[in-house]
Structures are given as structure tokens and as C-alpha cells.
Protein: PAS domain S-box-containing protein
Organism: Haloferax larsenii
Amino acid sequence: MNGDWGESAESNGQHGLGADSPTAQQDVLLGRIARALGTVETLDEGLHVLTDALQAWTECASAEAWVRPDSNEQRLTRVTLATAAADSEASAAAPTTPTTEIGDGVPGRVWDATEPVWTVESDDEWSIPNAESDSNPTNPVEAAFGVPLDTGSRRVAVVVLYFTDSSALDEQLRDVVSAVVDDASGLVSQLDANVELERRQEMLDRLLETIPAGTMVTAPDGEITRINGRAEDALGLSEAEATGRQYTDLGLTAHDRDGNPIPVEDHSIVHVSETGKPVFGTEFGFVGPDGTERWVVMNSAPVMGSDGSVERVVSVARDVTAREERERQLRAFREAVEHTGHSVYLTDTDGTIEYVNPAFEELTGYDETDVLGKTPSILNSGEHDEDFYADLWETILAGEVWHGEVVNRRRSGERYTVNQTIAPVVDDNGDIDRFVAVNADISDQKRREEMLERRRNKLERIQQVTESLRPLNRELARASSRDEIQRLVCEQLAVSDVYQFVWYGDYNPAVGRVTPTEVVGVGGDFVDQFSVSSRTIPWKWHPFAEAIRTSEVHVARNVLGEGNGTDRRQHALSWGYQSLAAIPVAYGGTVYGVIGLYTSRPNAFDENERALLGELGRRIGHAMNAAENKYLLYTDTLVELEFRSEDPDSVFNELTTAVDCRVTLEAISPARDGGYVCYANVEGTPVATVRDQLDALTTDGHVRVVEEESSGGRVEFTLTSAASATLLDYGATLRSLVAEDGTTTVVGEVAPETDVHEIIAAMRGHADTTFVAKRTIDRHESVPATSRETLDDVLTERQREVIDLAYHAGYFEAPRLSTGDDLASALDISSPTFYLHVRKAIKRILDQLLDEKRH
């Protein structure tokens, strides 16, 4: 190889320079090197050319070049070695690649130096490097000369020449070598630049392919100059097929979300080319070569030339088709959620609300701005305990769906019930990303269910009450005395599953007091502690006083719910009941007593149960009246009580004083409003005069002439109270009432065993009323006893009252003295109701009579 470089330095005279000047020698050598460098492409090849030329020309023992492969390391690597060996291939590359630290040895010291380094060393220190094996030098080295090779401010390599004869390395040789290396550095640097350019181009190519998006480089006129692999896939073209074509000629039409084509002048590439400004985030769709729609987001930026003009436009398009599909599905989902009738909200994995739909706002009363960033605990009504919510979270965090009914609270504080479903939403990796809760408002359904449940319970209670009363009704029909009836009532009610305990109390109208006489299911000390008066009402027992006063059932449905300080609540706690009922026992205007009924059921005694118990009270009253009548019917003697009233305020006395007449009471019956309807015969004065006087005396002014005669007649009128009615209250029969000259005489009949002292005391309670006589008389019955007993059995209390008044009012006479409308008005009922009572009563009487006749 050395022969390729022409004559050696030695053939040209001393030190290889001969007669030629150093400059001439330098020019010749540099020309040869320049021609050789023109045939190589890489820096390493150029350094081979340089070291080979220098070794051949100087005939040094060896020449080598060292480079720094990594600028971050302090180590040099030998890239070429030229020796005087005959084998030219041996000088091209050594089998090993020696390295040295910067600053060590000749190469290292030359790299650190700013000028060439000339060194003369001892024979022991230096050896000539051998291409075959650097580890076995054969010739000692006496001198070394190193020259740095720089390109501008950058050090590219160092060249080191080794000499076995130090005298050969004179100053002239050093100058020539230094000048040649310095002049050759420009040529070598060009190779270095080419290498750097190739390296950068390779890096650019790798970078272009590494970009995780389709990338296209275009000229300002839109011509494609480069595309990467992802762009090839998207366009369906290879880089060779795409390069040189206008990007608008690829057959791909960009369109917006509405499917409208995007004009070319609106393309981001055109905008960048015209303005030199980048455009980011352009989103559009196009139909790919496989026929499927794709969506991309494109960023386009200019590459500016040295003159400030746009040389290239680089466009990077990221495929967002999958994201667009997810967004489309999300838009469709949101559209569906926005219009669904169910309340829907989304939370993150910590339960923070991220979205609510309009139905949520309508259901809860909260606006979206009120709840975003908060948790669903703002809806907590306090209905559910911690375990309830712990189970909910455990379920959904495990990736499962939770279903259940939840009672929540609106913003207004009102409670509502939802059927809630909470499901986890997972990402592409299967991890839980958020939760979606769907709530169906079932408040109305729950109210209907509760209402049906209440109705069901009510019907069950009614059935229980009815079953409890059925045996009692049968027993009442067979009872023969008031004492027996009282005992039966208490026993039958107490043994039922509906009630806890019961007591019965007799009512004394003379003093307005109830005295308990029978108690079952609780100790006698329960009733020993109180008595009830309708005149002086102990507040804590007022239901019993009100029951007597109104003849209606009165209850306390939730005794324990009353204030902590009430005596009745303390009493209920002591005896274990929660509700009580006061049931009046009355018949025909007579109140016989009151029943106290207790139960451990809260909120017991609803309107249906009260109606049943009210009917029971009337049945018991009817039974007591029937028992007394039976006794009267079957006994041979009666007790007759006579009273005289000279009370000037009595209607009868005031009437006969003002009008000279005689008044005989024919009938008296309780009216619907609590008064009494009376029918009286008048003698000695025109009945019209009596009517006018009664109009002035009675408070309600209801007076009607039933029958008019020349000196008297029959009159109908209503009284709010009357002394004679006291006899009816005690179950006595009013035998006669005659008023004349301001004095009224009243005669009543009772059974022999009746306690007449109470009746006498009650009658004396009226002003200017005296007891005249008590007589035991024999019965004189014009109607068979069985007929009277049968009449009481077949007619209801109201039917008996209506028939009795109709009879005394002349309704059944011909011509009629009173019409149905007249009697309906007197009884304060409608005319159809009056006629209905009359028809049913007559039918029952006829059925009984005809049945008796057939038998």
C-alpha cells in the first residue's frame, strides 16, 4: 500500500525532503491525500487514507489515528493503524481495538494538547505497535510525534507517528507533517460532517418511524416529501407511492362531525403554508382505504428556511377513531340518560359525584351545581345504618352490581324511596373507573303498598273484632238480667285476642257519675282508683265522660305518644296498654253505663272498629232494655211512682198557667239532636192558641198542630229537656203526664226489684218537684206479653221510635193527621229515611204476626 503513495521521503533526500522545498513536498503529499479522500465516504476511511499516506511518506515505524466515540466518556479508541509491514491489508485494520484514557500515553496527551506533541522516550518505554499483535512488539521506539486533527472548534481525532530512529524526526519533518495534517483536517472534517449528517438522517428516520402517529412532510405547495409507516397504513400507500404526489390527490376527503366536506382552503396544511404559523388540534374524519371511517386529530407546524420562508410543513395525525367511538357512545348514553325518567348520577371510585341528569335534579330538588364534587351522603335520610352502606360499598368495589331500596331525603327535607341500582364502570384494562347509580322513584308505589297494608291490617282487625263480638251477640240474646249482661260483656271481650282487659261501669244520671261494677283481665285495683263524672270531668279520664255525654264511642289511640308529663301516659306505662276506648251503653235515650276497653295495640280503634264497638254498645243497651221489659212483662206486679212538679219554668206548667187548658202527654221520644219529640192532647182552649204559646216558650220553635177540634186538639212539639224524661233515662215506663193550672203530675212504672231511690233522687233534682207516692199495683195487660216481647225483638230501636211517633201523630189514621214529611222534620231525618223505617217496621210486624198465625 505504501508504494501507492509514490517516492519515499528518503529517496528525496535527507528526511525524505531532498532538494524540494518543504512547501513543495507538502503540496505534493496533500494533493495525493486529497485525491484519495475523494474516493472514500466515512471518517474512519478518511483517517485510514491519512495515516497510510503519512506512514508511507515518512517511512515511520507506524502511524495510527485515535477518536473519541462517546463525548460523555474520557476514553479514546484507535480506529486505524498503518505500519511498514509488507501486507497492505494488515495496515487497514488491526485485529484488536485498543483504547486509552484521555491524558494517558501519547494519544491521550496529544488529545489534551493544543499543539503537536514530540516525544523521545527510552527503549524500555516504547515499542512499535504491530498490526498482527500489539502485545508482542518486535522493534523498540525512540520517538513519537502526535498531531491533533480539529474541525473548527471540535476535535475529531489525533494522528500519532512512531519512529525507531529519533534522528529521523527532525524539525523540518515535524513541520511538514503538522502542516499536512492541518491542511487535511478540512477534507477529513467534510467526511466527519457527512458522517454526522448521515447519523442525523438516520436518527431522523428512526424518529419519524418512532412517532406513535401518522406523520407526513409536505412542501409548501402540498407535495408529499416524506411519510412514516403509520401514515402508510392510514393512507393505504407506501412512502414511494405517496412521495411526489399532492396530498389532496390521495382520494381521501376530510369531513366534519356533520359529514360535511372540509374545503381545501380550511385545511391546516394550507393554513401553515400560507401563514407560517402552526395549527394544533384540527379534528376531522375520512374514509380509509379499507372503507371504514376514521377520525384523527392533526397538528401541523412549519419548517422555516434561512430566509424565513416555509420550506416544509410537518403534520402529525393521531388516530382517535376509538376515542371518537367512545365519545359517540357516551353522547348517545348521555342523550338517553338526559331523557330518561329515572334519576341517574355518576361518581368516581371515592364516591364523589361527577354528573347528574335532569331527573335527579327534579327528584331531589338539588341543582347540578349543588352536588358536583360532593358525595351522595347529602341525600342520607338516616333511615339506614352503617352496615347497610358497608354492604353496598363492599359489593360495588368487588365489581358487582348492587340492588336495593333506599330511603333518601330531598333538599326540602321530605323523604322519598327509590329502587336503586349501582354498577361499576370499568376501563379498557378492566379496572373500575367510576360508578353509575340509577334510581327509580317508587315513593307512590310504597305509599300504595303501605295503604294496602293498612287496609289489610284494618280488615284483619275488623275480622278479629267481628269474630270476638259474634259469640257475645249470641250470649246477649239469652241474657236475662243487667248483671248477667255486664258479666258476659266483660268476659267475652277480655278473652279475645284483640283486647287486653275491660271493665263495665253503671251510670247514675242523678249525679252524673259512672261506678265500675265489673272488671275482667286486670286486678280490681285498676278501677278502684277512679270514678267518672260527666259533670265534673277528671281530665285524664275524659273519654268516658264524653262517651256518656254524647252517646258515642270516644278513644285515646296513642296514650304512650302523649306528653311525658300526662297522668294517663304514666297510667298506661304502669298497666301495659297503649290505646283505650270508652263505649256508651244506651237505648232509647237511656244511658245505662259505659265500657272501658283496653289494648296493647298502638293506634287501635280506628273508625271501622269504633263503628263496630258503637253498634255493640247499642246492642248491649237494647239487651238491657229487653231484659227489663221481659221482667216487666212476666211479673204480676209493678211499682208505680208519682211525682208533682210546680216549677214555674216548666214548659207544661208555664203553658197551662198562661192558657187555661189541660195538657195530657201522649208520647215522648228522643230526637236525633238530643232533645225530645212530644205529642200532647189539649182540652179547654183552641189548639191554635196552645201552638202560639208553645212557639213562645220552646227554644227551637218546632210546634205543629196535628189535629184541631172545637175546644182542643193534638199538638206536636220539641223540648230540649224535660223532668219526665228522667224516668226514661232510668228505664222506667212513663205511664202518664197531666198538666193543669200550673201543676204537672207524672206517673211512671218500674219493675219491683228496681232501685227506686236513685229514680226518686233524680226526679227531686228538678226544681219544685216532689215525690208523691210509691204504689205496688197489679198488672192489667191488654196486649199479650208475647206480643210486646216480640215487638222489641223484631224492631230496631230507631224503627220502634219511628212507629211509635207515627202512631201518636195520627200517621196511620184516615185521613192522616200527619204526613211523612212532617214526621221526618220532627225527627230531623230525611223523608226517604222516614218512609224506609216505616216500611221495614210494618213488614217485620206483619211477618211476625202472619208467622204466629200459621203456627
In short: Residues 171-210 form the longest helix (40 residues). The two ends are 163 Å apart (CA to CA).
